Every structure is written in structure tokens, then in C-alpha cells.
């Protein structure tokens, strides 16, 4: 096998990028990128009734959000139909496939009889050994000549050796009577032509692998390394579905999870590297291997996802984090922030990102930047602005006006004021929070004062001190 690793992600464009598909794409991306190989994208759009351009666009959007870049152009399976038919006809010419003229009624009658006798309903066509001179001038399908006797072994990096008796395989259709290829043929031809060395996909495809191996063997093609990964289950241990909540990658983007946190969480969902939970992309690429994938289904845990996302937000580069935050607002179709607000956001990012698990939580902490005067306190913050508190703000204002606007100076001024008035800074923090942000939960008062600057801070404190509502 070539030393160059080539993996692929091959979704069907029938909807959004499912979270399970996103993990499959991630595993393929990590495996290829960690070995200097190629990661390819193929859209399996042969089912024309169910495929649509909007779904393809949603898949591409989901991958772009997750940062899963692929090499070369997106490959359309449908557009390669002539090549698939060419291979079927090569197999026919080599005696590895045959023309089958059986009608649907004849096949169904065979199956009914087999059921009645308690025999296998797998279809072995009576035409498989028929002489070409006996072929009628009727529509036909091309079927692969399934091997007889013996066992097929699928060597799988996750599941181990999987043995399937040849008596469990039917004479699978390769080309329908209208000349169109079936999915099972198309997948093998595409993987071969694309030079795919490792097929990493959900274990719901394991049963397909045996049927696809018939095509590899008939064509004398090298079989790729298979790794069939267990599916993702919900917290209740059942297959992940709508009842468990969001299923699409785009939904998680709109809920405000950072892409790096999502990648980290999905990588840990069914794969492990010792006890490491939190890691970077560089570490994931270096560590990821097929041996670390477990055989049991992984359970999706939103709390774990949020915990990891909080760690990624806290450790992110401020400029990159701000860029992703702005993209989140754009994805949510919020009104764009003005340049002055973006500048303030940039100045505040270091204090905003601590203890925020999602972008909405970060934006909640940024309310002191996003809000404009006059500030209207919410219900909790209003309780901190009674007449006594307003009096404290009024008395504090001249001291702040004379302070140089640095952290040391502001801490000294407020501490001195508290001591002179027989109180503690903690008693003043609530009213200052409410005055500056209108919220009860915010970054530290000093962070807000420094980010807002002297003029804006004093104006907000003055508004609150003089408001009699």
C-alpha cells in the first residue's frame, strides 16, 4: 500500500451535517492531517430524489465552521456514473459479473417460496451460469457473481476480523436495467479512483463492506484499510435522535459553541488518548490513531461539551476568539456591531472569556459594552440601586473624577473611600455593576471601568446616582 495516506468523507446530501457525520469527517481529517496525507470530500448524490443543493451547501457550511478543510475539489458521485458503468462492464467482460433477466415478479416468487420453506431469501440468480446464446432480447441488470463456499474476512482496525460466509452474500446488482449504477458499486469505484487508503466510517456500513469487497476482489483492486466506528448514542444509551436535542453541526454553531471546543469534544467521543480530555488541534493530529477508537457506542453529553468549550474559550487567542464571536453574530443574523463596539470588545476580550462556556454567555458578560446610555438595569441589578446605594455613588463620583485611570489608582481610590465611609468595597461593587452594565453578573468592576474609559464610566455612574426611579 502507498505510504501516502488518503482518507475521505462521503455524506449523502439529504439534510444538514449530522453530528455523527461531523465526527466521522473529523476522524478522517485528523488521521490524514496527522500523517501529512490527503483528506477528500465526496458528495454521494446518486439518489436524485433525495439529494438537493441546499443540503450540499449545509454540509459544506458545517465543515467550514468546524474548520475541516479538504484537498482538491468536491467530488460528485452522480457525475461519475459513466465511470461506474464502465467498471461494471469490465467485470461483465471478465466473467466476474453477468446479465440477469429475472423480473421483479420472479424474484419475489423465489423469495416467497424460500420463506415458506424456511430457507435463505438471498437471491442467487438462475442466469449466473446461463450461456449468452440463451439470453432473451429483454431488459436486464448486471449482477456480480457472488463467490460460492468459504468465508470472506473483513480486516477492521476497530472491530477486528469480521468473518462473513459467502453463503450470506447475494448476486448483488451493479447496474440497473436503465444502465444506472447502484450505490455499492459507485462507492468502491470512487474510493479506488480517488486513491483512498483508509475508509473510516460508521459501523452501520460494516454489513456493506462485505458486498463492496466482492467488487474489489472481482477487479483485483487493493482493499483499503477499514475502520468502522461505533455510532453516537444519546445519554439514555439509544441511537442519537431528535428527542435528544440538536443533531446538526449548524445548530451547535447557532447555539454558540466554539469550533475548537466542538472538535475537541467530538474527537473524544469514541476515541481516547490516555486520560487526556482537553487538547489542541495540533495534539489531536499528533495523537489520533485508529487503535484508540473504542468498540462501544459513545454517549453524547452536553455538560462535557460545555465544560470543554469553556476551556477552549478561556485559552483562545483573543483576536481569533473575537473573530469567531463576530461570525457567530453574523450566523445568528444579529445586527452587526459598530466599529467602536468592536474596539471595546477587543479591549475587553481577556476579561470576558473567563468562565464563559458559549458565545451567548460571553455576550451576556459583554452587555456593559453592547449597551448604550442610558443604561436600564434588569430586575436583579435594580435591587442594588436603592436610595442608599445611589447616595454612595454620588459621594464616590468626585473621587473617581480626580483619579488617574489605572487599575492601581482605581483600586486605591475605592478602597480609601470605603474605609473613610466605614464600609467595604463589596458593598459598593453591586451598585457600580448595576450602574456600569445594568446587570448583576459581569466582569470585575475595575475591568469595566478600564474598558469603558473615564468619561463613559463617570457618565453612567452619574446617570445611576441621579436617577430617582
**In angstroms, what is the radius of gyration?**
32 Å
Can you tell me the overall shape? elongated
Secondary structure category: mainly alpha
Helix content: 40-55%
Strands ordered across the widest β-sheet: 1-2-3
**Oligomeric state of the chains?**
single chain
Strand content: 5-15%
CATH H level, superfamily name of the largest domain: HUPs
Task: Indicate the CATH architecture of the largest domain.
Answer: 3-Layer(aba) Sandwich
Question: What's the total helix number?
Answer: 20
State the distance separating the first and last CA atoms.
77 Å
Which consecutive residue ranges, at least 5 long each, have pLDDT under 50?
none
Describe the largest sheet: 3 strands, parallel
GO molecular function: ATP binding; glutamate-tRNA ligase activity; tRNA binding; zinc ion binding
Keywords: Aminoacyl-tRNA synthetase, ATP-binding, Cytoplasm, Ligase, Nucleotide-binding, Protein biosynthesis
Function: Catalyzes the attachment of glutamate to tRNA(Glu) in a two-step reaction: glutamate is first activated by ATP to form Glu-AMP and then transferred to the acceptor end of tRNA(Glu).
Protein name: Glutamate--tRNA ligase
